[in-house]
Amino acid sequence: MISKPLIALTIAALAASCLTLSSAQAATQSKRIDLNTAEDATLAQRRIQCGSVDNTPTVYSFHGEAFARVPGERDRKLFDVEGYNIRQCVTVTDPVRGTGWRLVSRELLLYVDPATGELLKEWKNPWSGQTVKVLQTVNDPVNQRPVFPIGADGKPNAWPATISGDT
């Protein structure tokens, strides 16, 4: 049985083996970003999603709980989930919309026993009582349309979040 710590260690090793820091990246990081400009808002979005170096894999991970909702019944927790998204960005240019980026990724979603933390191989359906085989989910591709300083509507790309606190 594969354990969560082994999966986390494998993902961490993959991420560590993919990390590089170029002088261009270091120079880019020293420039202060102005989120009020379309170019810098686009750059900030890229850095959050996958860094600023083309074709450099980045690992995103997430975890949560999966529930069932049946009208007239309380929500029922079915299992925990743990996901990993391996992604990278590439720079794209458009003569009208400017220089932007495109995200390319693959994703793995694992179903986990909430009591033991182990990956589920089988799961007992609480309504039918039937035990079924669990198929872990592999999504490939999980890509994103290009993001440019100028949107498809011709308007500047705005920072899609609210900033609060010290800036």
Please summarize what this structure is.
This protein is an alpha+beta fold and 167 residues long. It is built from 3 helices and 6 strands, in the order αααββββββ.
**Alpha-carbon distance between the two ends:** 47 Å
Helix content: 10-25%
Sheet having the most strands: 4 strands, antiparallel
**What overall geometry do the principal axes of the alpha carbons give?**
elongated
User: Could you give the order of the helices and strands?
Assistant: HHHEEEEEE
Q: How many E-type strands?
A: 6
Which residues form runs of ≥5 with pLDDT under 50? Answer: 12-28
Major sheet strand order: 1-2-3-6
Radius of gyration (CA) equals: 20 Å
Q: Please, what is the average pLDDT? A: 85
Number of helices: 3
Structural class: alpha+beta
**What portion of the residues fall into strands of 2 or more residues?**
25-35%
Account of the protein in words:
The chain has 167 residues and is α+β, with helices and mostly antiparallel strands. It has a domain at 1-12 and 52-69 and 77-154. 22% of the residues lie in helices and 32% in strands. It has a four-stranded antiparallel sheet with strand order 1-2-3-6. A hairpin with a 3-residue loop joins strand 2 (76-94) and strand 3. The model is unreliable at 12-28 (pLDDT under 50).
